[in-house]
Design brief:
This protein is mainly α. The chain has four helices and four strands, in the order ααββββαα.
Length: 136
């Protein structure tokens, strides 16, 4: 069983997948930073200083005691955070679309390259020689 596991791990597909997942996670963090730190503040300026993360709908207010200490936290629907995550997703999906489109275009160009003519096999050469000698 250990031998089979080593063979499974040493295959290129598993290692390629692991590398892809790690790079994908890092890429996701970069895109999240672009959205959180660059795009959303610009969108906030364009919309009059609105911060989407602050958008929420309070379903139940917080319960306070006589001294003003929170006994029970408020229950909120944080739809502003959802909007920001949805923008993250759309940007990541668009960037991946562009990357895949470029890779497919590159592959198509490689496929369109003319392939050199194949050399005939020894049998075909021999048969041609026999045919030519019979014609004489």
């Amino acid at each position: 069983m250990i031998k089979e596991f080593k063979e499974f791990i040493s295959r290129g597909n598993v290692i390629d997948l692991a590398v892809g997942v790690i790079i994908g996670a890092a890429f996701g963090k970069i895109i999240s930073s672009v959205v959180d730190d660059i795009l959303m503040p610009l969108i906030g300026i364009l919309t009059g200083g609105i911060n989407f993360k602050d958008f929420k709908l309070t379903l139940k207010d917080a319960v306070l005691d006589a001294n003003g200490h929170v006994i029970q936290n408020a229950v909120n629907l944080n739809f502003g955070n959802f909007i920001q995550v949805a923008i993250d997703f759309l940007i990541i999906a668009f960037v991946l679309f562009i990357i895949i489109k470029a890779v497919n275009k590159f592959r198509r160009k490689e496929d369109e390259k003319p392939t050199p003519p194949n050399e005939p096999s020894e049998e075909i050469i021999l048969l041609r020689e026999i045919r030519d000698s019979l014609k004489k």
